[in-house]
Amino acid sequence: MFKQENYQSYLDILHEELIPAMGCTEPISVALGAAVAVKYLKQFPTKIKIQSSGNIIKNAKSVVVPNTGGLKGMQASLLAGAVGGDADRGLEVLESMTEADVKKVNELMDTGIVEIEQLDTPAVLHTITTVTDGTDTVEVEIIHFHDNVVRITVNGKDILKKDFDVNAGEEDASYTDRSVLSVDQILDFIEIAKLEDYKDMLDLQIKNNMAIAEEGIKHDYGINVGRTIIEMGHNSLESRVKGLAAAGSDARMGGSAMPVVTNVGSGNNGMAGSIPVIVYAQDKNYSQDKLYKALLLSDLITIHVKTGIGRLSCFCGVVIAGCGTAAGIAYLDDCTRDQIKKAITNVLGDLSGMICDGAKESCPSKIASAVDAALVGVALAKENKVFGNGCGIIEGDIEGTIKNVGELGRIGMKETDATVLDIMTHIKN
Fold this sequence. Notes:
It is a single chain. This protein is α+β, with helices and mostly antiparallel strands and 429 residues long. It folds into two domains: 24-171, CATH 3.30.1330; 181-425, 2-methylcitrate dehydratase PrpD, CATH 1.10.4100. The protein is built from 17 helices and eight strands. It has helices at 7-17, 25-41, 54-60, 73-84, 99-108, 183-192, 195-218, 225-232, 237-253, 267-272, 275-283, 288-307, 317-332, 337-351, 363-382, 398-412, 414-425, and strands at residues 20-22, 47-52, 114-118, 126-132, 137-143, 149-154, 157-161, 259-261. Strands 3-2-4-5-6-7 form a six-stranded mixed beta sheet. It has a two-stranded antiparallel sheet with strand order 1-8. Strand 5 and strand 6 (149-154) form a beta hairpin. Helix 9 (237-253) packs antiparallel against helix 11, helix 11 runs antiparallel to helix 12 (288-307) and helix 12 runs antiparallel to helix 13. The longest helix is centred in the middle third of the chain and has 24 residues, at 195-218. The chain is globular.
C-alpha cells in the first residue's frame, strides 16, 4: 500500500525531472552557463573559458547544437550561449537565436576566444564558466543538474552562492529524496494519483515528444534511423514503436530546435520512455486515462532505476528508459504486478552494459535497441518467463537487481568512461 506521506514527494520528483529542453541537454547546459555569465558581465567578453567534467565534454563533442546552423561541440555551445542565449529561459536558452547571432558565432569559431579545460572534480555533471572583457570577470558554476546554477561570482564577489556537496549528485539536498521510490510503491502511486496533479506535465510530454518524432520522420536528420526502421517493418506497430522513438532522437541529435520533455536530465531518455508507450496505446485504442497511468509508470520507473547510476555515466541511459517503456507497455496490456517486474528485469538482463559514447547521430539506434528489448521483455513476461536469480547481475528481487545495475553504472564503468573519453578526444572531427 502506498505511503500517503510520500505523495507530494512523488509529484515533486516528477516536476524536477520532466523538464522541457531544447537540444541535447549537455551542450545546452554549457550554453546556459555562458549566457548567465555574459548577462552579468553586461557586455560581450574577449575571453570565454569553461572548466568541465569529462562527461559533459563527451556528450557535447559530437552533437549538433540547435539554432546554430549545424555546428557541433563545446565551443559552438559556449559561443551560442554567449552571443544569443537567453539566460532566463533555462534549458531553452537558445530558443531566441537569430540569423545574425548564428553569423557571429561562426565568425568567432576560429578566433581563439574560447578555452576548454577538463575539470578535476568527482561530480560527473560540473562546469565552471568564466568570461572576461579584460576589466571585469564573471564566473558561473553549474553542478549535478543541467540547470542547477549554484554560484555566480562578479569580480571575486559572490552575488549568488548555494550550498552544495560536490560528491552528492542526485543526493543533493536541494532536490527531493529519491529513496522514497520503489517499484511496488510506484505501482501503488499510479493507481491513487489524482489526474489533475500530473495531467499538465504528461500532456506537454505527449505533445512535445510526439511532435519531434513526426519531425524526425518527415525530414532528413542524421542517417534517418527512425524512418528506416519503419520502412523495414512495413509500418507495423513494432516498427512504429521503435521507429518513432528513434526518429525523435534523429531530429534532436541532428539539431532540431523543437523542445522535448526530458527525463533524468536527458531528452533521449524522455523520448525513449514516452514515445513507444504513446504509440502503443494509440494503436491499441486504449483510453486516455490508461495512457496517462502507463506514462506515469514509465517516467517514474526510469527515474527510479537511473537514480542509482547517476545523471551521467558510461552506462547508456536509454537502456533505463527501456525499463520504463517495458513497464508502461506491460501495464497497458493488463499484465500483473509480478509480470511488470519481470518485464523490467528482462530489459536489465538484456542490455545492461551498453556504453554511452556521447550524444550523437547513433543515439537513435541505441533507443531502437532499448525499445526492442522492452518489447521482447514484455512478451517473455506475459509467459511468466524472466531471467532468474544469479543470471549475471540479476537477483530474484527487483530492487536488488536495480541496486546492482546502479553499482555497475556508477562504480563499475568508471574506468570505461575514462577510456571512452580518451578515445573520443583523440578522434578529430
